[in-house]
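Supplementary Text 2. Reproducibility record for the structural model of the 767-residue chain.

All settings were left at their defaults, and a single model was retained for analysis rather than an ensemble. We include the record here because the model underlies the residue-level annotations in Supplementary Table 4.
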Amino acid sequence: MILHRTTVSPASSVSVLRVAPVLGAMLIAATGSAHDEDWRKLVDRIGAIEGPIFRLDPEHAGPSNRGQGFDSVGITLLSQIPLNQFAGNHNFGNDCWGYTAPSGREYAIMGLERGFGFVEITNPADPAIVGVISGPQSDWHDVKVIGSYAYGVSEGGAGIQVMDMSQIDSGTVTLVRNWQANGHSTTHNIVSNPERGTLFICGANIGNGGLIRCDLSDPTRPTPFAGWTDMYVHDAQVVTWQGGPLDGREIAFCASGLDGGITQTGLRIVDITNPSSPQTLATLFYPSAGYSHQVWLSTDRKFLYLNDELDEQFGQVSTTTTRVINVEDPSNPFFVGTFSSGRPSIDHNLYTRDGLIFQANYRSGLRIFDGSDPINPVEIAYFDTFPTSDSANFNGAWSVYPYFDSGTVIVSDIERGLFVLGVDAIDEPRVLLSPVGSVPSVLDPQGGGSLTVSVSGVNTSVDPASVEMLLTDANGDRVIPGVDQGNGEFTFAFPTVACGGASFSINAASTDGQTARLPASGAFDAEVISDLLVDFSDNFQSNLGWSIDASVGDGAWERGVPVNAGRGDPPSDFDGSGRCFLTDNSAANGGNSDVDDGDTSITSPVLDLSGGVRVEYAYWLNDTAGGALNNDALTVEVSFNNGATWSEVRRYETAQGAWREDAIAIDPAQGTATSRVRFTVSDFDPQNVVEAGLDAFRVTRVVCDDPQPECIADLAAPFGVLDLGDVNAFVAGFINQSPVSDLATPFGVFDLADIGAFTQAFAAGCP
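Retained model, structure tokens:
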């Protein structure tokens, strides 16, 4: 049977999903693979691209020939082992992992169509195949290592293949057994927590395809026995959490969903310390979801990177899009943004190490990002293993393993086998910038406040004089030098700022000319505010004139104290006053109630939104489908004509399961004294759970008083008086090259321009 792939426009992707199961059923019958994204890989198969083993010739390894015919930047191809070099007649490759023996010798483990290949790469330019462990025929194999055992799984069956690597230095890897227990046979993925030595399977034929712990009391018989079985888990990262109330707990971050992961696809965070009684800590749905495929934590574990495998192919995004989620509190995660390589390919598997992000992206190959700014990673290197074209198809790089002590990185490719790479960019000189603490989003026009940034160099030295802030407001651009704290951190004191908003960025350079910018592109934006005057405030302890409209079968808005009945209800109000507005505040039937079969709205009394104000509030949303079903959502609308017409200003579809604050700036040209605000919750599918809350509503008026002209010559007490003390302070600062005496451009240079600026200001006197 020949399968022809048809290019589908984004507008028709929904119809494809309805027709596709016919083709999918044929492929599933042939392969035993039942997960939504699997049949799509089969449609795109082009077969193995065979060849001899490539070994790097050092005499032909100059910078201009790093890729050896593959498009690359900052990465050298050290060796490549095509699939035909592995015994067993393999048409496709898949996952990879690594193992370092007690001797320090390094080995790559490559998933093959009919098992697993083991390759010594201690000398990465001269790899040696140790052997192949045969396994069930399947295009999906996955492997992890605990101790000296490699545990392999596949969708072809055989349970867990236990492979002994204790004699690998002698050229021997032994299949101990194919272990099947408690009804387990097929598996999509296997997960380990090296910190605790625990092992899990997911996407298996047992436990609803959830995350199942294996008993390793006998490491040669990894027996599934308990776990989180609420839904299908496609992949997960399991770690031992450090700090906070979850310190020491075993926490799983799961790429998961119903119906094989395609329905209600998203992130679930689960405490699996006791696998017999796992506790779901949080659920998060993200915008433009297609299929939540794989997740991995940033090096500092403050953020989680999530790969969605179908959003590019569905046309929901146009380039490789990776989600960034704040997980500093695993019980309260929130979506913070995305990053992209700018290519149209599909992101598949990524891992982090030492602040770097290594991502295998199918047709655009390995992409490496500097995650110093974890919300805005910057691509520093790439190696494209699929040289013909970039597109949202399932060919090319499957996975990457970056954890060898030597720095060698391996990539497994579906058609071209194993790539062994040297990442030159890791050692190439560069400057790293990252904020220490939060970046201010509000500035005082009178000045004050500061930003501290960590500045470091990789194989280079930072030039302290180059570290500066570029600040832009209504008065133009200003350069503010950083104050070196002596520990790699620089502090910037915000000066007076004109009303109307400001933006700023940090720049630094090394002594050999390397440059860096924070953020990597654009600038941080900040409001400039002197004060907030509250025009209207409502904590909902009494009825101040809100009206309720409900065309729902169940779950209308009501004002009250949360009963904390579960099922996505807020456990308490936001501001601690007691009452709030919330949907279906009922403990009946064990709290098994929510908004159903329609929508329900609450509308504010008439408000004065003229003259430039902000509408502020706290909201709660729990939506188990994340807006994927029938446009279920919490929407916010504003009317400037007493409810005659409405305009939508916010739409929340990504479930939070927590109170969040938001603010809407009202255009002074639109706001009127007869305005209203309306909050509407919709749920048109009775199988979906939607709960919402509203609290701490207020209308504030921004006050901004432009700063008084700065008296730059007033450098010493008594302030407000110019005398000899100010002259002495300027001279001392000039000699010591202190920022207080750096009064004229070019900033950072102390010259006659600074002396002239001080003299002129001193003669003019203070205003």
